[in-house]
Amino acid sequence: ALRKSIIAKTAKQNHKFEYHLQPRASAFKVAILGAAGGIGQPLALLIKMSPLVSALHLYDIANVKGVAADLSHCNTPSEVLDFTGPAELAKSLNGVDVVVIPAGVPRKPGMTRDDLFNINANIVRTLVEAVADNCPDAFIHIISNPVNSTVPIAAEVLKQKGVYNPKKLFGVTTLDVVRANTFVAQKKNLKLIDVDVPVVGGHAGITILPLLSKTKPSVSFTDEEVEELTVRIQNAGTEVVEAKAGAGSATLSMAYAAARFVESSLRALDGDSDVYECSFVQSDLTEVPFFASRVKLGRKGVEAIISADLQGLTEYEAKALEAMKPELKASIDKGVAFAQKQM
Ligand code: NAI
């Protein structure tokens, strides 16, 4: 009986994994730049499980060979290739549909995301130059902080190279949505899977604005709850930085969130017509040139920027939106100035 139950269990588990063993008709190539890092490794694992991926290209300046060898033993359809150092960067981008960039240094306690600017700005500039030269048509997902500045840097680099397509450049803010959904569900005793909170603005401190009044399913919050949840969502990254006490920032929840954004992009590329995610993109929703909001994703990238979420804001949200704009604008300008200085 024990043997029977083990066989049944194994069959059930295998059945679950069969899904991943069957490649879909269309499958895509994904590259991770910074793949050996805290985010890069679990992100690579999650992407390796996607039935929409045919090849996973892992690039880093060090330690990527072992990560790739390890991952390549998972019996899921995608092929895993490793690329080490600048000499192999171009090859890592060959024929790639989606490039995810988590390369760079993370925060330590007491640091803001902007403190990372000097190091990460250069890393993102160099990597995006290579993207422009080798796979200019790919979706580009920027994770490296400060996202509010690194995305405008990427845009400038792509413009300088004559290949900027604003519909395909994304700052990854999915983790803010993931956190908002989790915290709201916990606070309101809702089923997690059902909760969706749009988070707009940017990806640092007060520029992270969860629109709690637009939560689905519709829920009501007291003023105290709004204040408490908003502040917690804005500081959730710092909560992790402090808990890790010098060992870095969010990596596992970030990998989960980034994998969700990659999967959504792949579904859009595959022709799914109902794909919506929040992302920090070039936007005319407000007077700030880059702004995170819900966007509809399609084969060509951003198909529509959803303006409805910014209508009918509560007084608290409207005030917070106005209050963030100068900081967001300054971070964008800083990125643009950095990129233009390099010309
Ligand atoms: P990590 O230090 O563990 O990994 C970074 C990786 O980047 C390392 O493997 C390193 O070798 C690699 N790297 C450095 N320079 C490179 C270059 N020029 N080319 C390619 N790879 C290079 O850091 P972690 O924790 O993975 O964080 C990465 C970035 O993601 C940080 O900037 C962090 O602030 C950001 N982040 C963004 C979040 C978001 O919501 N957008 C959330 C959490 C972190």
List keywords for this structure.
343 residues; alpha/beta; six-stranded parallel beta sheet; three-stranded antiparallel beta sheet; disordered N terminus; binds 1,4-dihydronicotinamide adenine dinucleotide; malate dehydrogenase
Mean pLDDT: 93
- Derived structural class: alpha/beta
Q: What amount of the residues lies in strands?
A: 15-25%
* Gap between N and C termini: 72 Å
The radius of gyration over CA amounts to 20 Å
- Model regions low in confidence, pLDDT < 50 over at least 5 residues: 1-20
The arrangement of helices and strands along the chain is HEHEHEHEHEHEHEEHHEEEH
Instruction: Count all strands and give the number.
Output: 11
Shape: globular
Helix fraction by DSSP (H/I, runs of at least 4): 40-55%
How are strands sequenced across the largest beta sheet?
3-2-1-4-5-6
Summed up, the helix count is: 10
